[in-house]
Amino acid sequence: MPTIWTLIALLSVLSSTLADDNDTDLIDYKALFGDSPRRDLPFPDLVKYDNYPVEVHNVTTSDGYILSLFRIPLNNSCEPDEGKVPHIFMHGLYLTADDCIIPGPGKAHCYIYADNCLDVWVPNNRGNRYSRNHVSLNPDKDPEFWDFTVDEMALYDLPAIIDYILDNTGKSQVSYVAHSQGVATLLMLCAKKPEYNAKIKVGFGLSTTAYLEHSRFLLIPFQGIAADLMKRSDNTNFEFVAHGSIIQKTGKLLCGLNPLQYPFCSVLVFAALGYNRFQITDETLRVVTGHTPGGTSYKDFLRWGQMRNNGFAEYDYGISGNLKKYGRFQPPLIDLSAITMKWYFISSYNDFVGDVRDIAKLMARLSNVTQCILADKTFGHLDFIYGKDIPNYITPKVLSVLKGEGFPCDGDCSST
Ligand SMILES: *[C@@H]1O[C@H](CO)[C@@H](O)[C@H](O)[C@H]1NC(C)=O
Ligand SMILES: *[C@@H]1O[C@H](CO)[C@@H](O)[C@H](O)[C@H]1NC(C)=O
Ligand SMILES: *[C@@H]1O[C@H](CO)[C@@H](O)[C@H](O)[C@H]1NC(C)=O
Ligand SMILES: *[C@@H]1O[C@H](CO)[C@@H](O)[C@H](O)[C@H]1NC(C)=O
């Protein structure tokens, strides 16, 4: 196994450095694996293909990034309901808005929310394939464009998105469903700009990632090492796992032919993110390989290595930088005391990234969280967004809370 881990790490790093100008396939995977008409469609086209309405909005952050914000607006047959608030789905690390539509109508988060007459808004963090824009920086030419981590997503992207949605809809609150890094982003925002607590009616954390000490995701131990090695280097400002990069090609090559190839697929494309062939259907897998990964900054990849090393802590500038900035060798833990908004976490014992022991550690520092650890112990990290049981395990819990009907938990429930 360790050799494969190294291989994956190398592949991911290579994918960030090898330019991939021509989006040609290494082999004719369509002939081999069968194709999906949904595989290569970007978000707006895929939503139209699936027969839902879609809007594209641009949100400019106070530091100049131009983010694509998608919306699946209310369908006319929905009864007006003053009590309802706009509903945000926020994607995780390496990923995009696509995550909430990939499994398709009746199966994917955002379609299920739209079917339940929610006004669905789907942001994209800076740097992913839909948010490679800036008022003055060029992502293809200016390394400064890539000088960001989840800290900037929390302090600039998310507040700009929330305020844009509130402005646009005239509402005073939103509800928020997030996968993985998307949970950490709102935690950091409410910790540092406490006025945002009041703007969130309720948050749902799917596979919450903050502490990563027990994470078995094979890139994460590597990230921890890389974060240490890169402390002295200034050259961390570049794009990472961009859309159309090697991981995607590897996915196209190795996934979907026959069940014997699933182990390769699970290792190479899903990088042992708890990939689960019982949850991710062949059809969903084909669409995943056309959309994943979605790209971010190398610096954010390293930032999560810092979280692995330091806990849910402030940015690590290295010893001398930390002394200057924080007056101590190690960065301090992020102060979470200002977080008052209500969170519901949905977690799983088989989650290799959001390990339940790490989530327990986070919950011990939060005051308003109710958690359900799913009864199905095989549910993995990516199953929260691509799994066939989303309509059975996940969305009913979200919809029930939004209707004021409580948080049904068939597994292990706990509260802070
Ligand atoms: C990419 O395509 C262009 C035009 O089709 C061609 O000139 C170039 O050699 C190709 N580059 C690679 C690396 O295949
Ligand atoms: C959003 O911004 C991009 C980049 O500046 C621009 O190309 C696009 O036309 C804008 N779209 C909308 C809907 O404003
Ligand atoms: C509106 O939503 C209803 C309920 O989900 C659905 O049956 C209907 O097809 C939708 N209508 C349009 C025009 O999208
Ligand atoms: C928890 O959240 C609810 C709903 O927003 C709020 O009414 C309550 O005051 C919060 N409790 C604490 C202890 O912050």
TrEMBL record:
PANTHER family for this protein: LYSOSOMAL ACID LIPASE-RELATED
Organism: Loxostege sticticalis (Beet webworm moth)
InterPro entries hit by this protein: AB_hydrolase_fold, AB_hydrolase_lipase, Lipase_euk
Domain annotation Partial AB-hydrolase lipase: ranges: 44-98
Keywords: Hydrolase, Lipid degradation, Lipid metabolism, Signal
Gene3D superfamilies registered for this protein in UniProt: alpha/beta hydrolase (3.40.50.1820)
Signal peptide: 1-19
Name under which the protein is recorded: Lipase
Keyword Signal appears in the UniProt entry: yes
Organism classification: Eukaryota, Metazoa, Ecdysozoa, Arthropoda, Hexapoda
Top-level taxon in the UniProt lineage: Eukaryota
Assigned protein family: Belongs to the AB hydrolase superfamily. Lipase family.
SUPFAM superfamilies: alpha/beta-Hydrolases
